[in-house]
Amino acid sequence: MKKGPIGLIALAVVGFVAINSVFIVDEREKALVLQFGQIKAVKEEPGLAFKIPFIQEVVRYDDRILSLDTQQIEVTPSDDRRLVVDAFARYRIADVVQFRQAVGVGGMRAAEQRLEGILNPQIRAVLGSDGVTSNTILSADRGTLAARITAGVRSRAADIGLEVVDVRLKQTNLPTQNLDATFARMRAEREREAADEIARGEEAAQRVRAQADRTVVELVSESQKEADITRGEADARRNAIFAAAFGADPDFFEFYRSMTAYERALQGNNSTMVIAPDSEFFDYLDGSDAVSGRPVP
User: Fold this and answer.
1) How many CA atoms lie within 13 Å of 59's alpha carbon, on the beta-carbon side?
2) Where is the chain membrane-spanning (predicted)?
3) Closest of 94, 155, 164, 89 to residue 120, by C-alpha
4) Structure confidence by residue, pLDDT tens digits, 124-177
């Protein structure tokens, strides 16, 4: 009767031991079997694995590509224009044994601290090297700079069992204390460019205005010249007609001219004239033959 409980206890003990002897390695992780802090086995293939219960323990590490966002740091390129840089790195655990030996029980937190300690000095070294200016960092060449940073970090990160896949510069800004001065300088440059554009526009407008004035003067002069020529030709033709008329009948021509003079002189209510009585102007007004010595037409 007493063997039943003992058997159950023994079976439970065996089951407990068996459970603590088996563990599962996921395809997204790597595992180390430790015995008193010493590495006894490395499990990188997914599936079931075994360990000695109560003596050995299993430490798991993520085998996927991980991301590390660094704190913002200030860098000084070769043009002495300080910049605040924010970068991130993608990495994975390549050698889990070397990783464990390097970081110990600190795990991923210690690994990221060491990786950031490698990454930040490398960023300062590359971005502060000769020939690298703030304009270079802010241009399309930043991809080349990121590749140089990645190469430098990768070789040093291998010492702690990490493989750095990529390093990128997320943001590159000016320090807060320099923003006002930079904006003021940019504003002054834009205002200077605007003043230059206005001056060039005024100069162009003056040229167009001067050309238009010159064209007006030339057109008016040419028109005046043509008008004078036409007027002169008309006057010559009129004089020729008058001369022909005068030659055909001088008495009638003289009479016509006198009548025209009377019409112009005696317009409206103007009938008073102060003139010598023997003036030729009265030849056709008094109707006397004695005045002009010729008959009235």
Assistant:
1) 22
2) 6-25
3) 89
4) 888 888 878 878 887 777 888 888 999 999 989 999 999 999 999 887 776 766
Domains detected in the chain: 10-62 (no CATH), 66-174 (3.30.479.30), 249-292 (no CATH)
Q: Which helix (H) or strand (E) holds 68?
A: strand 66-69
pTM of the predicted structure, to 2 decimals:
0.54
The size of the chain, in residues, is 297
Q: Report, in angstroms and rounded to the nearest whole number, the Rg of the chain calculated over CA atoms.
A: 57
Q: How far apart are CA 153 and CA 132, in angstroms?
A: 19
Counting Cα atoms < 13 Å in the Cβ hemisphere of 188 gives 6
- What are the structure tokens assigned to 128, written together? 């502060």
Burial (CB count <10 Å: 0-12, 13-18, 19+), residue 19: exposed
